[in-house]
Automatic annotation (TrEMBL):
Molecular functions per Gene Ontology: pyridoxal phosphate binding; transaminase activity
PANTHER family in UniProt: HISTIDINOL-PHOSPHATE AMINOTRANSFERASE, HISTIDINOL-PHOSPHATE AMINOTRANSFERASE 2
A Pfam family per the record: Aminotran_1_2
Name the record gives this protein: Histidinol-phosphate aminotransferase
Keywords: Aminotransferase, Pyridoxal phosphate, Transferase
Organism per entry: Elysia marginata
Entry-linked Gene3D superfamilies: Aspartate Aminotransferase, domain 1 (3.90.1150.10), Type I PLP-dependent aspartate aminotransferase-like (Major domain) (3.40.640.10)
Length: 192
């Protein structure tokens, strides 16, 4: 007998797509690897930080939070610093959903959305992106029910690169006022 919840014990381990990953042929942006060497200024800042003997202290996020808020044109209390987007996605899903709530995750998309939703034992609707229409806006709207607690929109989507308009995001949010709409724009700057 497993000590884990049965739906978690039945899950497959996440296996990232590692085949064909040749940095000589591709930029490899899908795993957020650096494409350039670390700049001398960043290297020096890290060395200075290490030499100031501050590693044992919890970091202060004040200045970083303010700069992110300013960059995005929002208030600093709307910024949450996490240990990468995976943790941010996990926290949002865990804070928003209860077991067996409904989640709408258009696919294919970033595997972490599905992984976190499955850990929370959510019922997942997966409208499909198409070559003709791209983001399945109407299928997402049609999938919304009173039990929908989470809708995930990646813009641009990974792996398709499809961007979703602000108007479409607002339309979906208005159609599901009881749901959390997780808009993942980690590659947003590439669309500008």
């Amino acid at each position: 007998m497993s000590v884990f919840k049965s739906h978690i014990a039945a899950m497959s381990a996440y296996a990232p797509p590692l085949e064909g990953r040749d940095p000589g042929q591709h930029l490899l942006l899908d795993f957020n690897e650096r494409t350039l060497p670390v700049s001398p200024q960043v290297r020096q800042a890290l060395l200075d930080y290490l030499n100031n003997d501050q590693l044992q202290m919890y970091p202060s996020y004040g200045e970083l939070t303010e700069r992110i808020a300013e960059y995005n044109g929002i208030h600093s209390n709307q910024v949450m610093i996490t240990n990468g987007s995976d943790q941010g996605i996990d926290l949002i899903i865990r804070a928003s959903c209860r077991e067996e709530d409904e989640a709408i995750i258009p696919g294919p998309s970033f595997a972490m959305y599905y992984q976190c939703a499955k850990v929370e034992n959510l019922n997942i609707a997966e409208p499909q992106y198409t070559h003709e229409e791209g983001f399945p806006a109407q299928a997402v709207l049609d999938a919304i029910t009173p039990a929908t607690r989470l809708i995930v929109i990646a813009s641009p989507n990974n792996p398709s690169g499809t961007a979703v308009s602000r108007e479409t995001i607002i339309e979906i949010a208005k159609a599901a006022p009881e749901a959390t709409v997780l808009v993942d724009e980690c590659y947003f700057e590439y669309t500008q």
